[in-house]
Amino acid sequence: MIRAFLETFTLPSAARWPWVVAPVLALASCATPPPPQARQGEARAHAFTAVATPIEGPAETASAAELAKTAVSLTPPPPEVAESVVLELVTEEAHEATALVAAPEPPGRLFVLQKPGLIRLLRGRTLVEAPFLDLRKQVAVNGRDNGEQGLLGIAFHPAFAKNGRFFINYTAKGGDTHVEERRVSKRDPNKADPHHARTLLVVDQPYGNHNAGDLTFGPDGLLYVGFGDGGAADDPHGHGQNANTRLGSLVRIDVDQAKPEPQTVAIGLRNPWRISFDRVTGDLYIGDVGQNAYEYVHLLSAAQLVAPGAPYNLGWNVMEGFHCFKGKPCDPSQYQSPIIEYPHSDGCSITGGYVYRGQALPALGGHYFYADYCTGLVRSLLWNGQALTASHDWKAVVDPESRLARLASFGEDQAGELYLVSHDGPIYKLVPRPAEPQGAL
Fold first, then answer.
1. Of 39, 227, 277, 317, which has the fewest Cβ atoms less than 10 A away?
2. Chain-centre distance of CA 25, in angstroms?
3. Residue 176 and residue 166: Cα distance in Å, rounded?
4. Which residues contact 439 (CB under 8 A, 6 or more apart)?
């Protein structure tokens, strides 16, 4: 009954209301057995590859050449690597956290975003009570755990240490997405100036989900902002394939211009919840939340970003991952395929992360980490510029007791070390496993 209800109700069919979808889907799965292709036992009976089993029906997939680039089996990390890594609890106080972001300078400055509209400093293991910025009067939140509205993203200007400028992405009270410039207070570096606000973009949001919300600066000094398709289910208004709307797109902005004109870099996105640049290669990774069958990661290379012509088309809502959406006839060669996908037998809402470039765990260098909000999976992939060369499942390594839940974001500090952020409050850090104490002779 529950699953039948979900199939006719807009919210779950949208399948990307991460604050509510996990418990609802869990309840539904208890009420009715999953379809054969989604049964956990069958999923584990064979090695998972980046190329998932096609959905039922005559769906076409990306070309054999494209699929060959991603045909790498999912495996545990090598034992010597797995034994060197542990997940360390930093704090349990970041309730309703949506992001953790480091300022470029000074070292150690980490900022936590909370969905209702608070930005707070994280000092060591302490989440500072007094907010850096309180936007609760401006930010719309459609229920404590419902929908995807709220304070969703923050990015610091590359020259933040000198100019104090930072940029936020949030859902305003009227439901629209606002991208704004803010500044640090001249009197107190631990406070933002509440009176300075420069609006860069206002985007109408027809629904309360698929607001996306992430933004980050690229190596080119431009601000990149990802937008979802506007919400509901199946992209009913066709925003993903409409180059004349911000919805379903990735844009970049020269924030140093007096009146910057956003440039569309890519279209065909469904809900790019988290985006990040590899600080070494300059490649842009996009964790794009799928509909009812697949979750996937897109990559725009540094070379693509240097001289784009027309916007790159990443496929939605004609494609979902490598597949023609819902089995409808399409020509996958017209769209840029993702570099990896996983089926909904493994999760239901991807949380994009970062390429590890820290010094504490050298064996992880170059691996892009990502997670799933619904199931708590933690995985990594290694891309050599042409193809996948590794795909690892870290769940048993970092979360052997299956405590990770509702992973809303990753974080990266100035040194390139990685954090995992739960919407429930905990923030964790990937660290070297402590050496075993020497026993007495």
1. 39
2. 20
3. 20
4. none
| CA dihedral of residues 384, 385, 388, 391 (deg, nearest 10) | 60
Single-letter code of the amino acid located at 295: E
* Contact criterion met (CB below 8 Å) for 102 and 354: no
Q: Which of 273, 277, 276 is closest to 290 using CA atoms?
A: 273
Question: How far apart are alpha carbons 134 and 137 in whole angstroms?
Answer: 8
Do 430 and 439 touch, CB atoms closer than 8 A? no
Kindly list the distances between the CA atom of residue 16 and the CA atoms of 86, 124, 237, 380, in Å, as whole numbers in the listed order.
30, 33, 17, 22
**Hey, where are the domains in the chain?**
2-432
Residue type, 256: D
Q: What is the pLDDT of residues 376-386, one digit of tens each?
A: 999 999 999 99
Which residues on neighbouring strands pair with residue 295, listed in sequence order? 342
pTM of the complete model: 0.86
Strands 151-156 and 165-171: antiparallel
Q: What is the pLDDT of residues 331-374, one digit of tens each?
A: 999 999 999 999 999 999 999 999 999 999 999 999 999 999 99
Per the rule left: phi > 0, alpha: psi between -120 and 50, beta: everything else, 111 is: beta
Residue type present at position 155: A
Is there a contact between 209 and 17 (Cβ–Cβ < 8 Å)? yes
Residue 10 C-alpha from the chain's centroid: 22
What is the rounded CA–CA span in Å between residue 152 and residue 115?
7
Report how far residue 284's alpha carbon sits from residue 263's, in angstroms, rounded to the nearest whole number.
16
